[in-house]
Automatic annotation (TrEMBL), chain A:
GO terms for molecular function: acyl-CoA dehydrogenase activity; flavin adenine dinucleotide binding. It comes from the Bacteria. Its cofactor is FAD. Residues 122-218 form the Acyl-CoA oxidase/dehydrogenase middle domain. Residues 231-379 form the Acyl-CoA dehydrogenase/oxidase C-terminal domain. Keywords: FAD, Flavoprotein, Oxidoreductase. Belongs to the acyl-CoA dehydrogenase family. Residues 6-118 form the Acyl-CoA dehydrogenase/oxidase N-terminal domain. It catalyses: a 2,3-saturated acyl-CoA + A = a 2,3-dehydroacyl-CoA + AH2. This is Acyl-CoA dehydrogenase. It comes from Geomicrobium halophilum. It holds the Pfam family Acyl-CoA_dh_N. PANTHER family: ACYL-COA DEHYDROGENASE, ISOVALERYL-COA DEHYDROGENASE, MITOCHONDRIAL-RELATED.
TrEMBL record, chain B:
Keywords: Electron transport, Transport. Heterodimer of an alpha and a beta subunit. This is Electron transfer flavoprotein subunit beta. It comes from the Bacteria. Residues 21-211 form the Electron transfer flavoprotein alpha/beta-subunit N-terminal domain. The electron transfer flavoprotein serves as a specific electron acceptor for other dehydrogenases. It transfers the electrons to the main respiratory chain via ETF-ubiquinone oxidoreductase (ETF dehydrogenase). Signal peptide: none annotated.
């Protein structure tokens, strides 16, 4: 057993930690109030190579392994979740399809700009009628000559308002459906027939924008198919599977930050003549927050390590996503409780984390879907 | 241009310092590049970007300092050298460190050597000036601006809050003050590249030095933390009553008037 991380991973951890604390965190309140991430923070992330962390070196990225990515995401999770959502949706589901499944030609064409952050990626699977049941797609693609004609509506697409490159899933064979009838495409925002809607109004994740995307007789060149025609559902599962540990790592980072904030507050806030950190009720909450977060962290890095050993780690990734996101929500709830009335006030970050935590149990596969995956893996062959 | 940076690994300034039996407890503490040395590294990179050349970072310490050297490489230095103190049993002071550095520089060609104004741990600011004296080259401390044109350097120095403008010839040693620049973060590609950059370790034999010649010239007698501040005293009552009480306290308690 070896729990040590490599020297370069430790350097990355320190760099992202310092960057987040010194450069991003001072703008957290502004991001929340303006619902906008200052451009210079996005530019800085690009300069530091954060937009290319999952893209291989030969295409201009740095091709981190899964443990390395988790280390970066964990530290990004310590600040405003809208910021990490913008970067994560790009480096995770927004580019994984191209990295893992696309032809060499598509990789050469799109990955260098995505790695440098000159172009932003996003992932368009969800539809009004196809959420957890991702097989029930209404978006269709019909082959005409050497082009595919895509029609349909996607919604809740993170980064869509700023994205240049969309990974889009459409039904190419109604009869076959999920079993060979769904295909993944790369669609550029400038292709004729693409309309991006207004940003959705959300409970949290301010500054990270999601919106509807409508395809109306959108012409897509034949070579823009990602992977094989008909294999899109498998592709979607692969892409989402890889994203899970990343979201778990982000949730661990946010939980750790909430614990730090809660300890700080508990030592400052005096009631009954002493800091509330001297009260056992508070101490026990802190102990539970720390214990659950450490457990989530261990599960996350074990799943990441298994993936780096070449394992699929389907069950382990789902368990990490499930447990880490539920932990984040529990920790956020206790953090608000420790902050008392102040925890309900927008000027204290605990309030923001509490709202931002909620979506983690829903997106990148709801936690109900994670339980489904876990039990399926458990009962395999029985 | 041959650019050298002398740097030090120090306690993270945000760490809480604990002292046990006169020795600083390093257990579990985070270490960083001395923040003033970061200005020196950044300035070296700016110089290289403008004039070309090569940057070498040098430190005196044990193998733990390799981590900070790698960070300097990740920021943009080309190579790193660790002058290893493993063979030294006794105390190490600024004399020891500057002697080792000076031995290292004997056969080197350099246009400029940059260092931090002081190290945040002991705040002595001795090593770089001692090194310049040993090498018999020009030195300017606490610089806040540096422009190099050919063989001459235009420099602004922070002198107790005022600015002094100086022109000097290369080769030159400077120490960097806050305000000179904003050090960059090492980028992720920089960190990956740093793995492959050369990091050389030299021991006393390599430097042609003998342990006896490096014996510290100073001895630390004791170390202690500053006394904790007591809570202030709040005066109450009408303004003239408060003035009276304050006068009495200054006379009788503080005994300053």
């Amino acid at each position: 057993m070896n729990y040590n991380i490599s020297e370069e991973n430790e350097q990355m951890r320190m760099m992202v930690k310092n960057f987040v604390e010194n450069e991003v965190e001072p703008y957290a309140q502004e991001i929340e109030e303006e619902d906008d991430i200052p451009q210079h923070l996005v530019d800085q992330a690009k300069e530091l190579g954060l937009f290319g962390l999952s893209i291989p070196e030969e295409y201009g990225g740095i091709g981190l392994d899964t443990v390395g990515k988790c280390i970066v995401y964990e530290q990004l999770g310590r600040t405003h979740n809208g910021y990490v959502s913008l970067i994560g949706a790009h480096t995770g589901i927004g580019t994984t399809g191209l990295v893992r499944l696309a032809s060499e030609r598509l990789k050469q064409k799109y990955l260098p700009d995505l790695a440098a952050g000159k172009k932003i990626g996003c992932f368009a699977l969800s539809e009004p009628g196809a959420g957890s049941d991702a097989t029930n797609l209404g978006t269709t693609a019909e082959k005409k000559g050497d082009k595919w004609i895509v029609n349909g509506t996607k919604h809740f697409i993170t980064n869509a308002p700023i994205a240049d490159v969309f990974t889009v899933f459409a039904l190419t064979d109604k009869e076959k459906g999920a079993k060979g009838g769904i295909t993944a495409f790369v669609i550029e925002k400038d292709f004729p027939g693409v309309t991006v809607g207004k940003p959705d109004k959300k409970m949290g994740l301010k500054g990270s924008h999601t919106s509807q995307v409508v395809f109306e007789d959108c012409e897509v060149p034949e070579e823009n198919v990602i992977g094989e025609v008909g294999m899109g559902y498998v592709s979607a599962l692969t892409i989402l599977g890889e994203g899970r540990v990343g979201l778990a790592a982000r949730s661990v980072g946010s939980s750790k930050k909430l614990i730090d904030l809660s300890m700080e507050y508990a030592e400052e806030r005096k009631q009954f003549g002493k800091p509330i950190s001297k009260q056992q009720a508070i101490q026990w909450m802190l102990a539970d927050m720390e214990t659950e977060t450490e457990a989530a962290k261990t599960m996350t890095y074990r799943a990441a390590w298994l993936i780096d050993q070449g394992e699929k780690a389907i069950k382990e990734s789902s368990m990490a996503k499930l447990f880490a996101t539920e932990t984040y929500n529990n920790v956020a709830d206790k953090a608000v409780q420790i902050h008392g009335g102040m925890g309900y006030m927008a000027e204290y970050p605990a309030e923001r984390f509490y709202r931002d935590a909620r979506i983690t149990k829903i997106y990148e596969g709801t936690n109900e879907i994670q339980r489904l995956i876990i039990s399926k893996e458990m009962l395999k062959g029985s | 241009m041959n650019i050298y940076v002398v740097m030090k690994r120090t306690f993270d300034t945000e760490e809480k310092v604990e002292i046990n039996d006169g020795i600083i407890d390093e257990e579990g503490a985070e270490f960083v590049i001395n923040p003033y040395d970061e200005y020196a590294i950044e300035e070296a990179i700016v110089l290289k970007e403008a004039h070309g050349g090569e940057i070498t970072v040098v430190t005196v310490g044990n193998e733990d300092a390799e981590k900070e050297l790698r960070t300097a490489l990740a920021m943009g230095a080309d190579q790193a050298v660790l002058l290893d103190t493993e063979d030294l049993d006794g105390e190490i002071d600024h004399y020891t460190i500057s002697e080792m550095l000076s031995a290292f520089f004997q056969d080197k060609e350099y246009d400029i050597i940059l260092g931090g104004n002081v190290a945040v741990d002991d705040g002595a600011g001795q090593v770089a000036p001692r090194l310049a004296e040993k090498l018999e080259i020009n030195q300017l401390t606490t610089i806040t601006k540096l422009d190099i044109d050919g063989e001459s350097a235009y420099i602004e120095r922070d002198v107790e809050g005022d600015v002094e403008i100086v022109e000097a010839n290369l080769p030159l040693l400077v120490t960097c003050q806050q305000g000179l620049n904003e050090p960059r973060y090492p980028s992720l590609p920089g960190i990956m590249k740093a793995k492959k950059k050369p990091l050389e370790t030299l021991d006393l034999d390599d430097l042609d030095l003998d342990e006896d010649d490096l014996e510290a010239k100073t001895r630390t007698v004791d170390r202690f933390l500053p006394p904790e501040k007591d809570a202030g005293k709040r005066l109450e009552g009408e303004p003239h009553e408060q003035v009276q009480e304050l006068m009495s306290l200054l006379k009788n308690e503080a005994k300053v008037i």
